[in-house]
């Protein structure tokens, strides 16, 4: 472990960090200590114990390291928390009324933020290490770091009733990253909770994913269902998904603190024109190669074409757009059982009884899950 050489006063180091961070495009920077979130570990343990993490086994596997930042690096004495604003130009809730269009979560409408932020974190960490001689380590989301509690303890914001970070300057639209260091930089004061009696984020959730304020059941969350969940979407949530095909911004977008948010984010975080309001008809035609090309560099690419088309078919089934029927019918013979099963559900929502019966009798399906979809579609509503 390299301790700082010729120690520089913490105040001067903080000024250096803030100047360099702003030059790199970060909108907020603050410092906390690795042991500042002692209560986060037990809360995470209770979340996993209750099974609310769903099929995200990695959360259980990394529980100990995630709950205690020093378990990742025992020598760390300070955690520099950084945030980047990705607030949208328009209210994303408006898109939910355009049922022939797909709603992609605001954060995923351009380049993968992991790539953008990690590169800049590394640049800042290298400059800090060169100036101080102190060891540093960089983390952004993919590592088992509880960024939101750390950011709250550093004073960047507070964890709202939707469990996401809320900032008085940027609302609910912040990407987070962290730099751990052996240098002692002191600590900023934690931000207090400013949610008050508001429960807008809880009440708007289409699938009732919040059992109580400040608690999330991921198994009911549309973001989890469309991104992390690998199998068929449970029937009870399909209608509630509407046209949300990747993630869900409802609880973020409805937060009253967004009215104070500054839309200052850079072009790389602005929505690509083709991902702002993509047509379901176009997305339903994507084969694997076209899917990979369209979403190159986007976080959407990580779920793969089959899960993506599954989500688009749910949106098609909710669209009331009969003109999508030919595209849905084509997907009844897709190589992926996951896609075929979702196509059956979309067909049952869009086709008349005669057309549905004709296609059902013509189907030569051997997959049990897909046959279960056909049988479910025959049950009375």
List keywords for this structure.
381 residues, alpha+beta, 2 domains, four-stranded antiparallel sheet, two-stranded parallel ribbon, 19 helices, 8 strands
Describe this structure in words.
This protein has 381 residues and is an alpha+beta fold. It has two domains: 1-278, no CATH class; 283-309 and 321-381, no CATH class. 42% of the residues lie in helices and 9% in strands. It is built from 19 helices and eight strands. The longest helix is centred in the first third of the chain and has 20 residues, at 113-132.
In short:
This protein has helices at 10-23, 40-49, 57-61, 63-67, 69-72, 113-132, 147-154, 200-204, 222-228, 235-241, 250-253, 273-276, 280-283, 288-294, 304-317, 325-330, 337-350, 353-362, 368-378, and strands at 28-32, 78-85, 103-104, 136-139, 158-159, 165-166, 174-181, 244-246.
Cα distance spanning the termini: 64 Å
Low-confidence segments, ≥5 residues, pLDDT <50? Answer: none
Discrete helix count: 19
Tally the structural domains: 2
Strand order of the largest sheet: 1-2-7-4
Order of helices and strands, N to C? HEHHHHEEHEHEEEHHHEHHHHHHHHH
- What is the arithmetic mean of pLDDT? 92
How would you describe the shape?
A: elongated
> Which value, in Å, is the CA radius of gyration?
23 Å
Subunit arrangement of the protein: single chain
């Amino acid at each position: 472990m390299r301790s700082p050489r010729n120690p520089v006063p913490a105040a001067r180091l903080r000024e250096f960090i803030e100047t360099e961070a702003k030059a790199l495009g970060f909108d907020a920077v603050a410092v906390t200590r690795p042991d500042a979130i002692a209560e986060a570990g037990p809360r995470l343990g209770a979340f996993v114990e209750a099974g609310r993490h769903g099929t995200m086994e990695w959360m259980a596997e990394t529980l100990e390291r995630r709950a205690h930042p020093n378990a990742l690096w025992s020598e760390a004495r300070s955690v520099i928390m950084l945030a980047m604003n990705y607030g949208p130009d328009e209210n994303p809730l408006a898109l939910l009324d355009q049922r022939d269009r797909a709603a992609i979560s605001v954060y995923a409408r351009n380049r993968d933020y992991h790539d953008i932020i990690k590169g800049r974190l590394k640049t800042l960490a290298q400059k800090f290490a060169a100036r101080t001689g102190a060891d540093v380590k960089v983390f952004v989301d993919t590592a088992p770091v509880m960024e939101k509690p750390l950011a709250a303890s550093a004073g960047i914001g507070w964890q709202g009733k939707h469990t996401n970070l809320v900032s008085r300057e940027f609302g609910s639209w912040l990407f987070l990253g962290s730099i751990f260091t052996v240098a002692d930089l002191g600590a900023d004061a934690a931000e207090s909770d400013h949610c008050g009696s508001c429960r807008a984020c809880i009440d708007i959730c289409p699938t009732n994913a919040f059992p109580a304020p400040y608690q999330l059941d991921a198994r009911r969350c549309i973001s989890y269902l469309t991104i992390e969940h690998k199998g068929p979407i449970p029937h009870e949530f399909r209608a509630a998904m509407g046209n949300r095909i990747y993630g869900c911004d409802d609880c973020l977008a409805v937060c009253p603190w967004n009215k104070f948010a500054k839309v200052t984010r850079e072009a790389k975080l602005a929505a690509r024109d083709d991902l702002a309001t993509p047509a379901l008809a176009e997305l339903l035609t994507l084969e694997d190669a076209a899917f990979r090309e369209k979403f190159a560099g986007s976080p959407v690419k990580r779920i793969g074409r089959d899960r993506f088309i599954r989500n688009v078919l749910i949106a098609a089934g909710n669209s009331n757009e009969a003109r999508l029927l030919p595209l849905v019918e084509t997907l009844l013979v897709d190589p992926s059982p996951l896609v075929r099963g979702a196509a059956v559900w979309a067909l049952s929502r869009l086709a008349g009884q005669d057309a549905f019966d004709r296609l059902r009798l013509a189907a030569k399906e051997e997959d049990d899950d897909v046959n279960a979809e056909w049988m479910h579609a025959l049950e009375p509503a």
